Amino acid sequence: MSLQNEKIRLKEYRELLLKKKAQEEIKIDVINELNLQRGQGLTSPTSGTSTEETRLLMEYIDRANIFNISKRDEQRGKILKYRKFFKSKRNQQVEIYFKCGKEVIYKEGKVSTIGRDFVMLTNLRDRIWIKYDVITSANIPFGIPNYSNTHQHYLYDNQLRKKLLTQFGQIVSKRDILKQQFYEESLQTNLLAWEDTWLIIHTNEHDRKIGKLHQLEAGMVTLSVFNKRETVMLQDIYYIETIRFINILRHVYQSIRK
User: What pLDDT does 156 receive?
Assistant: First the structure.
């Protein structure tokens, strides 16, 4: 019997619906069933598929969007791909190939910070800031397993949660981990936290500046060596490294000799 082609009375319509309802296959939603047992009520599904299928679909759409952007804007797509790759390898060992002028550079270390336009690697001796736009290739070193980060936050800090709700900007600005969690820093913003740190700034294969980070303003990085000041345009920087104490002494000695 078709409800569209025939006119029926309300009583007949109700009987027809009840008959169809009795013939329906009942599918048990385990999530809502458990929520009802806990007294939490019903929740609407995010999609017509299962939760794991939805997660996989979201990841697929995210990656597909990045490659579609790369077809339209290669430079922007490149940055998005590196950012996505390094986020998936946070606190894990990676290797990066890039060129500084004509010189090919290889760096290896753990992914410490993923910024808007840079990544920071750390090892036992140094910190290295590398801009995305100079990177040629990033990968996992040979012999190191490709594993996902299994760290999960099972313990919740209720005091921190309350402070984030009431004093978000003040709390996040004091913790580097929270900064990375809630927004992506630029290279300039990140370097502000390393004031008075001795650095080597590479602007070409034969051009580097050594000094203590003194100031960052209007796209300019100012280094100081005693009373001498040197400025570097942020856009001219290829990569930055922290400098060890023995190298500082060597640099000071060479400066005195000159």
Answer: 56
